[in-house]
Amino acid sequence: MAAAVARIFSFSSVEPLLLPAPPAAGNGRRGRLRGGCIRSSLASRTLLPTDDFDLQEGLTTNIQKMLRQRRRQSGREMMATIDNLKRLCIDHYFEEEIESAMGAYMDLIHSDDLFDATLSFRLMREAGHDVSADDVLRRFTDGNGEFALALSKDVRGLLSLHDMSHLDMGVEASLPKAKEFSSKHLASAIRYLEPGLARYVRQSLDHPYHLNLMQYKARHHLSYLQSLPTRNIAMEELAVAEFQLNKLQHQQEMQEIKRWWMDLGLAQEIPVARDQVLKWYMWSMTVIQGSSFSRYRIEITKIISLVYVVDDIFDLVGTLEELSLFTEAIKMWNTAAPDSLPSCMRSCYNALYTITNEIADMAEKEHGFNPVNHLRKAWAVLFDGFMVESKWLATGQAPAAEDYLRNGVVTSGVPLTFAHFFFLLGQDHVACINEDAAKLSDHIPPAAVSCPAKILRLWDDLGSAKDEAQEGLDGSYRDFYLMENPSCTPADAEEHMRRLIAREWEELNKECFSRRTFSGSFARACFNAARMVSVMYSYDEEQRFPVLEDYMRMLLRL
């Protein structure tokens, strides 16, 4: 397994994405488009060639005209177009148009057509509207809540029903049935479909839209659109131009992070620590999306790298006494605190102290609030979590499965990382910042953060369970659950873990779609973190990571 991971995250394993290059256009100024307006962006000025920008500007204008026309014509056509824009990850160019067009298709949620009703529901729930899946699907089911068999022939409607079913918040009885019904009949229909549609259906079943990274799905959706007899060339070309811009930007970010990591020198000073810069960047690249967040991705990757280094120091380097002193130094939070520590811990402390203060200063400059006290507390909480695990190991103590999972949320590093992103991002309402920040730096983070953290811990432990069968290792959630439930088999425990993952997805949906505690950008990052977990921790029988490899080929060329 270790060799497989090393191979995946070596730079030479990343191949270029073969996408058609956008045609050249005339010269013009550079900037970023949003809602029909041109806004300057350092990232765009640096990365996007002038004629490519002119192409994007022209394509965006054409699509805006099309949206205005379809708004006057058909709610269904408007709704389908907006769905395609979202699936291609280019909807951010048309936020104003999409918002103003919502009224054109909201009534379709009451349609007797399965596709119209389910797509309207999904777009409305994603936009934060209070809509009931049970109310929408009632007209398609009998008195027992079973779907009409005639719907099994409506492939387009079934695909939309399947997408809708994954927006489950755990309180709508119709959605689990919708998932079962759509999955069953789509799988049965594949053999009778023309090849392009069959591939699209298989991809939708294997990688459901809501549960997977949008940028990964976008490429497959583009391929499907290109196979249709009726095509929207402007939309397709804008999507390709967006892919190219993202790839160029990610390449620059990756090179900057690689230079920072080499200059930092921790890999040389702590040889046993992981040296996986690409893996660390993959997290921030996928979780924090958008050209305007380039600097944030770079800074968050630094935080992620230090979480991994600290984890390795606790696991492989320090004695219990040294680790206790390391933890106390973090709580002191000053330049003299690490003086009595071993050299590697001192270097690690100085690095995380410097980077955290730099991020706090950046947040203050951009948003007028210095969060360093919240961030130092978040680091202290992480170190306390690592200390708990170290004491369990040193004393041979087997924690309760629930205690292990609760502490695993902290030691996943997700709450710490999102605390830094929260302050870099800022909030729309400054008055809420202290309350939300206190939750983020606490031992019990809010659901929007704890859900992806639990999903990460459980997915990681499911992978560890496979390794343990081969290597004799222990210490996963599965092991502690089996100790508490001796009548269960390992397969039973793993099925229980999958149910827990599904439950965390429901809670995450509820938090982001219904409660909407945090801003849209923060909620999207929480979703993306959960989506990235299955990519990062899913490997096949040959210990390969096919989706991760495909994703890296798509977004990076190093």
UniProtKB/TrEMBL annotation:
Q: Which residues form the Terpene synthase metal-binding domain?
A: 263-507
A Pfam family the protein falls into:
Terpene_synth_C
Signal peptide, first to last residue: none
GO molecular function, one example?
terpene synthase activity
Q: Which UniProt keywords apply?
A: Lyase, Magnesium, Metal-binding
Give all residue intervals belonging to the Terpene synthase N-terminal domain.
Answer: 58-205
User: InterPro entries in the record, alphabetically?
Assistant: Isoprenoid_synthase_dom_sf, Terpene_cyclase-like_1_C, Terpene_synth_N, Terpene_synth_N_sf, Terpene_synthase-like, Terpene_synthase_metal-bd, Terpenoid_cyclase/PrenylTrfase
| Any Gene Ontology biological process | terpenoid biosynthetic process
Report whether Magnesium shows up as a keyword of the record. Answer: yes
Q: Which cofactor does it need?
A: Mg(2+)
Protein biosynthesis in keyword set: no
Check the record and name the PANTHER family matching this protein.
OS04G0344100 PROTEIN-RELATED (PTHR31225), S-(+)-LINALOOL SYNTHASE, CHLOROPLASTIC (PTHR31225:SF0)
Protein name, entry field:
(3S,6E)-nerolidol synthase 1-like isoform X2
Which organism is this entry from?
Panicum miliaceum
